[in-house]
Specification:
Elements lengths: L1 E2 L2 E2 L2 H5 L5 H10 L15 H38 L7 E2 L2 E2 L13 H21 L6 H15 L3 E2 L11 H7 L1 E2 L1 H14 L4 E6 L2 E6 L10 E2 L2 E2 H6 L15 H4 L7 H20 L10 H6 L19 H17 L4 H13 L3 H14 L2 H25 L10
Helix pairs in contact: 2-3, 3-4, 3-7, 3-10, 3-12, 4-5, 4-7, 10-12, 12-13, 13-14, 14-15
Length: 400
């Protein structure tokens, strides 16, 4: 069995979050930029900083997750050798000094960013070949042609494959989640000096050009409107809130910031990896244990770790990593912190779970804090029990 993995310095693996330099730059700009800012030139400083907040940040997410999975594969291979199982194992580990140097799907982060440049140049070439100027509709038609026809990009209606939720995989395969395709669309249009804005509408994230002639987007030609071609079938689905939108109603929507966009992408990763982690426990919810802990009929000191379901460890860890990143962007989001604490509980990291859930109680509404309190008390006991076992004191101490 051939095991090939990519490793980054141990310090980077110890804390699976964004590289410090990338996230510091991200936080310096958070809240000051939105999709609606249009640089005078696609190569201006503003454009490069906005790109960092979208494509580069999400490529760092993918690189860290790839490094984590590669690290797991290497540890599995070493375990086989240590157990002296009769398996031929060859390690082909490559170490990199930084995430920027590590290949991600065969290319570095800068090379994937260049792939976006190449798409924009294809659109420019299409406009030149048609001898078309810069009319809004014509530019959008050219972008749609290159992305959805020549390049064959398509939206995955139900994201069950993790590769559809990572930017480099979407650029490589042409199939991905709606939010990542929107990000690609935004960047391509930005390089054409066309500003694209977006907003969350129900369960959908929709994008459109910032223009004073929004009604043009809803004119139906060849069976579809430009708004539908850009955003997919949800716009024409009567069950979707997006189907009721008009040029006038778009003006009333709150425009998403860069922070919002990255947050949506990270939230999608959390949901995806949690579903994969809990696949063998159909219907399991992150908050399921809270109901049992809040049951007044149960003994408050009862600790039963055997009831904690077994989850896929790698997918659970990837969900936790995505949650850690999102908490940096949304530190006061009590529901996110609660869910993060519950994932740590399922991962049997009781000390960290207690810390996160205790912080959550400080931000949560009073009725939610009352539900969390008995569960946190039990977690305290579980943490003590784990520490006793590590000291060889199991069976000698009892909970009063």
């Amino acid at each position: 069995m051939l095991c090939t993995s990519y490793c980054v310095p141990a310090a980077a693996m110890a804390s699976p979050t964004f590289p410090d330099h990338c996230f510091i730059r991200l936080l310096r700009l958070q809240g000051t930029s939105s999709l609606g800012r249009s640089p005078s030139s696609p190569r201006t400083k503003t454009s490069l900083l906005l790109r960092l907040l979208f494509e580069e940040a999400l490529l760092y997410v993918a690189a860290e997750d790839e490094a984590f999975m590669g690290f797991n594969q290497e540890m599995d291979a070493l375990s086989l050798l240590n157990e002296r199982i009769n398996v031929s194992t060859t390690s082909d580990t490559k170490e990199w000094d930084s995430m920027e140097q590590m290949p991600l799907g065969g290319k570095t982060i800068s090379e994937w960013l260049s792939e976006l440049d190449a798409i924009a140049k294809e659109v420019e070439a299409e406009l030149v070949s048609r001898d078309i100027g810069c009319h809004l509709v014509e530019v959008l038609e050219a972008v749609n042609l290159v992305l959805f026809e020549l390049r064959g990009f398509k939206r995955s209606p139900v994201v069950v494959d993790s590769k559809h939720s990572y930017l480099h995989s979407v650029l490589n395969s042409g199939c991905g989640s709606a939010i990542l395709l929107s990000i690609i669309y935004i960047e391509v249009c930005r390089q054409l000096d066309l500003t694209i804005v977006g907003s969350r509408v129900g369960e959908e994230f929709l994008i459109w050009p910032q223009t004073g002639y929004l009604e043009e987007l809803f004119k139906v030609t060849s069976g579809h409107s430009l708004f539908a071609i850009v955003n997919g079938r949800c716009v024409e689905d009567p069950r979707s809130m997006a189907s009721d939108l008009t040029g006038t109603s778009l003006l009333r929507l709150e425009i998403a910031t860069n922070r919002d966009i990255i947050g949506i992408a990270l939230a999608n990763l959390i949901r995806l990896h949690w579903k994969r982690a809990s696949r063998s426990n159909h219907g399991l919810m992150l908050t399921s244990p809270l109901r049992h802990a809040h049951n007044a009929d149960e003994k408050p000191n009862k600790i039963d770790k055997s009831n904690i379901p077994l989850l896929r460890p790698q997918d659970l860890r990837l969900a936790i990593m995505a949650s850690e990143r999102l908490l940096i962007l949304q530190p006061h989001n009590w529901t996110l912190r609660r869910d993060h604490g519950m994932m740590l509980y399922y991962n049997r990291e009781y000390g960290k779970a207690v810390q996160e859930l205790s912080i959550c109680m400080a931000f949560a509404p009073e009725e939610e804090a009352e539900i969390l309190e008995p569960f946190v008390e039990k977690l305290h006991l579980m943490r003590l029990e784990s520490s006793w076992k590590s000291l060889g004191l199991a069976g000698r101490l009892a909970v009063p």
